[in-house]
């Protein structure tokens, strides 16, 4: 079931959307945040602003945090991205300490100057080998990699054909590169084909980049990568796949959907992030062409004009790859998937729908923002930290709670999360029904 909105439209903090403030008017740029802040403050004062929290302990399966008003919260943590629980792994801490002693804490330069270290050079080789590709280039963040690979290769006369639900870093990279952007319906190969055919009917001279993701984080679903690569080959386009959420965490060998679908080394361009499974920040782009690696290093602005990853980060990521590729990594993925399947099954037993297929991302459907905000206010008092997702991260009216599962979560953690969300949803529905009854009585 999806919960429908029956709340009082005048209820403070429950109405409105970030969409209302996306295009502010007025000549004074410094006043453009005023309306948004007033709306945000109304939600904050009513307890309906669950964003910008800060942790006070490591982001493990349970943690202490504060909301952005400084109020303490504590509970079982399904808000952090650490799918294999590697952030707390003792070997990760050890290699980070060793890296500080050997290289210091700062890369102190762009990768095109002297920002590289022995560990960053080794990491590029490790990533390429892991994906069975020839080359890889590092970026300071996953966002920078997604934006940068598009900005580095696509020019104004070129075309971009992208899944309508592609991550914002990919959308922003596309928008900064060309006006020739075509969106195809989510996972719809026929619609993608139609877009490509229409472009090639008019333009055979310029490039086309087709963009998708190995695992879409808000819907937990995946495209047919082999079919997409065949489609790109047919129309002379280049396929770029974002593997931020599945690499390391899914598949027997941890190679994500590219590995699961037998596409290792066969996708034109692969980009990803280390912030979900590999216990660090940073990103990469992998290619089968040394020429593209070198071109991106110098023409992709988010790597050329940014400091390189720190030696601590590259050492940590390298060790995380070691663990991911080991028997221990396989066991962690199996534990993670058991947790995922258990969480999804218990949500179903509680009558709550979830999106997509089993992955470390389990999104419980809510729908109406007002109801979701009531639930979000209640969850910390029930000892649960879970992320409310609403517009602009998802469509308006499609709010959900995105639980990010870790291998380290226990069965009791999972039961606690389901009980908390079920109770909070029930209470929100009762509150909405009471307000509706009062409104009808007043109208009568």
Automatic annotation (TrEMBL):
Gene3D superfamilies: Aspartate Aminotransferase, domain 1 (3.90.1150.10), Type I PLP-dependent aspartate aminotransferase-like (Major domain) (3.40.640.10). Keywords: Transferase. InterPro entries: Aminotransferase_I/II_large (IPR004839), AON_synthase_class-II (IPR050087), PyrdxlP-dep_Trfase (IPR015424), PyrdxlP-dep_Trfase_major (IPR015421), PyrdxlP-dep_Trfase_small (IPR015422). It comes from the Bacteria. Residues 75-421 form the Aminotransferase class I/classII large domain. Its cofactor is pyridoxal 5'-phosphate. It holds the Pfam family Aminotran_1_2. This is 8-amino-7-oxononanoate synthase.
